[in-house]
Design brief:
Strand order of the largest sheet: 2-1-3-4
Number of domains: 1
CATH superfamily: Response regulator
Shape: globular
Number of helices: 5
Distance between the termini: 27 Å
Structural class: alpha/beta
Radius of gyration: 14 Å
Strand content: 5-15%
Number of strands: 4
């Protein structure tokens, strides 16, 4: 029997639910999750009530587009990866976003640890809750495809919960 995903924290305001995604450099995992989650939110008719942002804990890629392999993987799957520009996570995001999702345990530590609004992205993964999204940067194309698969199924769970939360 599958473990149900954790409940989403209540929105801070009634007008919008804000989700932040965090990885190391904001060029692979969190932008892939941002693009997929944004597309799923739009498909669900929630784009006017949900905002998505992504960032990295490091500053070395700020202003750059996502990794070409991440973008190619998204494009091949029918997503638009062209608008992303890397930005750095700011500590104020813990107070500004309704939900902050880190891609792995070290990212979670780097942003101050878990609490009711700060979790691992894959806490919402219906197949492997609590797992990490592996960093595909130093690997081949298969790593990016694996990340996309994880992100798509986890995004579906998050969007379903957002729909219930915002009814």
């Amino acid at each position: 029997m599958a473990t149900p995903p954790p409940a989403l924290p209540a929105p801070r305001t009634s007008s919008r639910y804000a989700v932040a995604l965090v990885c190391l450099g904001n060029i692979c995992r969190s932008p892939m999750a941002d693009v997929v989650l944004s597309a799923r939110v739009e498909e669900a008719g929630l784009a006017d009530r949900v905002s998505i942002a992504s960032s990295g804990t490091g500053d070395w890629h700020v202003g750059q587009p996502m990794d070409r392999r991440a973008a190619a993987t998204l494009t091949a799957a029918g997503y638009d990866a062209s608008r992303h520009r890397a930005q750095q996570y700011a500590p104020t995001w813990r107070d500004e976003f309704d939900l902050v999702l880190a891609m792995d345990g070290q990212n979670l530590v780097d942003i101050g640890g878990a609490d009711h609004r700060v979790r691992l992205f894959r806490d919402f993964d219906p197949l492997e809750p609590g797992g990490e999204v592996p960093d595909p940067y130093y690997g081949g194309d298969a790593g990016f495809e694996e990340v996309l698969t994880m992100v798509e199924r986890t995004a579906a769970t998050i969007v379903a919960q957002l729909g219930l939360e915002l009814e």
